[in-house]
C-alpha cells in the first residue's frame, strides 16, 4: 500500500470507522411474521456535520446465538452479524436518511420466543470488519 491514511485503509477493507454516534437510529417497525421470523425496519439519519462515506455496515451487536440475521452480509471478527448497505453515490450526506430492514430467524426450539434483543451499531468501510 503506497498511501497509508485512514480513508485508504477503509477503502482497502483494512479499517472501519464507527459512525454510530454520528447517526440517529430509529426503529420504525418491528414485525414478528411467524415461523420464528422477525423483521426490524430502521431509519438511519446522518446527524453529523460530515458525510458518511463508502459502505454502511449495520451490525447487530449481542444477538443471541440461536438467532441469525437472514439477510446479513457476513459476520464480524467479534462474532456479530452485519448487513452491508451500499450507499447511493457512496455517501450519506448530513441530514440525509435511509430506511433498511434486518430480518432475523430463530434457529431452534431453544431460541428465545421474545423478540431478538441486540444493539445496532454502524460502521463505515468495505469488506469484513
List keywords for this structure.
129 residues, 4-stranded antiparallel β-sheet, Immunoglobulin-like, mainly beta, single chain, 9 strands, 5-stranded antiparallel β-sheet
What's the short story on this structure?
The chain contains one helix and nine strands, in the order αβββββββββ. By secondary structure, the protein is mostly beta strands.
Task: Characterize the structure shown.
With 129 residues, this protein is mainly beta. It has one domain: Immunoglobulin-like. It is built from 1 helix and 9 strands; from the N terminus they run H-E-E-E-E-E-E-E-E-E. It has one helix spanning 6-11; strands at 17-18, 23-34, 37-46, 52-61, 67-69, 74-75, 81-92, 97-106, 119-125. The strands form 2 sheets. The protein has a 5-stranded antiparallel sheet with strand order 1-9-4-7-6, with no helix packed on it. It has a 4-stranded antiparallel sheet with strand order 2-3-8-5, with no helix packed on it. It is globular and about 45 Å long. It starts with 5 loop residues before the first helix and ends with a strand.
Total number of beta strands: 9
- Average the pLDDT over all residues and give the rounded result: 87
Provide the β-strand percentage band: over 45%
Report Rg: 15 Å
CATH uppermost class: Mainly Beta
Strand order of the largest sheet: 1-9-4-7-6
Amino acid at each position: 500500500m503506497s498511501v497509508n491514511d485512514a480513508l485508504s485503509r477503509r477503502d482497502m477493507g483494512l479499517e472501519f470507522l464507527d459512525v454510530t454516534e454520528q447517526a440517529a437510529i430509529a426503529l420504525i417497525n418491528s414485525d414478528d411474521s411467524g415461523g420464528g421470523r422477525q423483521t426490524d425496519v430502521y431509519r438511519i439519519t446522518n446527524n453529523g456535520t460530515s458525510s458518511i462515506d463508502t459502505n454502511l455496515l449495520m451490525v447487530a451487536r449481542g444477538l443471541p446465538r440461536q438467532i441469525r440475521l437472514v439477510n446479513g452480509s457476513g459476520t464480524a471478527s467479534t462474532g456479530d452479524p452485519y448487513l452491508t448497505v451500499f450507499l447511493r453515490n457512496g455517501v450519506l450526506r448530513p441530514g440525509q436518511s435511509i430506511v433498511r430492514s434486518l430480518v432475523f430467524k430463530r434457529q431452534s426450539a431453544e431460541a428465545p420466543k421474545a423478540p431478538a434483543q441486540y444493539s445496532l451499531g454502524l460502521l463505515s468501510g468495505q469488506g469484513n470488519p
